[in-house]
Every structure is written in C-alpha cells, then in structure tokens.
Amino acid sequence: MRRSFVRGCGLFLAALALPVFAVGTATAAKSSTNKLAPVTINGSGSTLQLAYDQQVILVDFHKTQPTVTVNYSGVGSGAGRQAFIDQTVDFAGSDAPFPAADAAKPKGGAYLYFPTVADPITVSYKLSGVKSLQLSAETIAGIFQRQITKWNDAKIAADNPGVKLPSTAITVARRADSSGTTQNFTTFLNKAAPSAWTLGAGSTVNWPTDTQGASGNAGVAQIITKTNGAIGYVDFSDAQAIGMTYAKVKNADGKFIAPSTPAASLAVAGAAVNADLTYDPINVAGAKVYPITSPTYLIVYQNQTDASKGNAIVAMLNYVYGAGQKTAPTIYYAPLSKDLLARAKSQVAKIVVPAG
Q1: Which end of the chain has fewer beta carbons closer than 10 Å to its terminal beta carbon, N or C?
Q2: 98-117 residues labelled b (16+ CB within 10 A) or e (exposed)
C-alpha cells in the first residue's frame, strides 16, 4: 500500500503543531496537460482528509501542474469552514456541510460542495491483552458519556462473549477542536443509539469533563497510543498508518463490521445524494456496511475572481476526479460511487472563471 509522503514521520508531530504542507513551484518540469500560469492556492480544514490531500493534491497533482503551488493546513473542519467564510483561503476541506446558521455567511457568495473520497471513522483503543473487540452503538454511547468507566463492564462483556476483559479504567480521548470527524461520529450515535446517546450531534459537543481532548485526528491518536485503557475515534487512514487497534462496530443490519475501504464504499453507494452533492453515508442499511463512514468535501466559491487561481482550482478538482480516485484505496480512503463521481465531474463546469 502507498503511504502519504509525510505520514510515517509526521503524524505525531501534527498533534503538537497544526501542520501546513506545501509543494513549491517547479519551473523545469512540463505538465502532461495544459500548463497553467504560476499561482499559489491556499486551503485549510479537515484532518480526516489530510493524508489524501497531501498525496493526491500536494504531490500527484503537482507533478501534472508544476507551476501550481498548493498549501493546505490541517486545522479541523470547523476552522477550515471559518477561514473560507472569511476568504483567508481559496478552498476549504470539510467532512460536513456548513451548519444552517453559517450557510449564508461566506463572503465570496455562492459556493459548491465537491465530494472527494470517504473514510471510515474507527473506534480505536489500547488495552493490554485484548486485540479484538466488537462494540454496539449503545455501548459506545455509554463509554463516551462516561456511564461505562471500566473495560470489564457488563455492557462491553455482552458485546464480546468469551473475551476476557480486564478491570482497567477507561480513558476517553476525543477532539477538542471543531471537527467534522466529531460531527460524523456523534451523528452515528444520534442515529444508531437515540435512546442512549444524550449529547447530540455536532462539530463540537459538551463532553464530560473527565474526557481528554486533543486537536486533530493525530492528537486523539497520540492519547490512545500512549495510554493503556484509552479509547477514541480516529480516521481509518491515520489508524492504519500507525498500526492502531480498532473495534468492529455493529451496523444497521445488526452485524459487527471492521472498518475498511470496501465497507466504506458500500456505505457511500447506499447513501442518498442531495442536489448540492452533500450526502450522508452514516448508518445506512447493508449487511457489510461499516456504519461510521465519513464523507469529505472540498468547498469552493462558484464565482472565482482571479483567473489564475480559478483555473488552478478547476484543474485540481479534475485531477481529484480522475487519477485521484484510483489513488484513494492505496492510502485507505474509499473512492466515490460511479453515480456520485459523474455528478461531481459535471459540477466542476459550474465554476465561473474570469478571462485571464
């Protein structure tokens, strides 16, 4: 399997300082497509899609358009959407649409959602002597609301017949920043365990005070890997990159399913797509579906004001919808379904670029 060029050495550093990754303009190489004017485009947002953006946009796309510099800062979906609202970036990466209260705020006017890939959200843990677990939504809800505080709790045992569980205290790790991963994780609990989950769904929620918060998926991963008895939600690509242990999760059909790109692809295929190309693959029906599957989007202004930037953004999106879809599974992301991909490709033509 391919790895993003910074994954192995940079994951835990990202937990300490939010990363900005860039590919510099190279003037010697010639593009295999129409060569664009030298330009820099800036984006920020989701850490769940960070590894995909690093590999596909910052490395692979750059090889085809060496005069284009792309910067992307993994600051979380909420911060990325706010930067887009304020027009301090040219595009945002987000794992969720704008909340209704913010939908009309972007200063650049009309905008478009461009779905890119999907990624399972793992329920990762570290527990000495236990390498295989399965968890229902009700049990996960109890753990993250701190109603279940020991690993040998009867509800965890009921999900795992025959597994010897220690009395180790549970440490809950969760996102401290405004996060699309949090929004999709809590949306799953809201859908799958409505009578058990009481904290609601959103990019931020009022977590119990004795949980441990961290910025970015990498920050949550760091807490888990350093703490015996810890559990948290981490995107599949990050979890795979550092060899984390994660549970099978009970899906809408009552089957315990491990996170994987094929199981995420089934979730994407089973989701209804809205007119604006947003979609919800969380807890859709299907015996082999992984139920906590997150969409990802690039958010772009429809009416571009700079010709060079607009042309570069169009070229970037076309690359994502071409070779970028083939790359996705090699770095543990699920590509779009055929129908959604066709609709996304067509939507690129809605971007209005001024004559340059």
Answers
A1: N
A2: beeeeeeebebeebbbbbbb
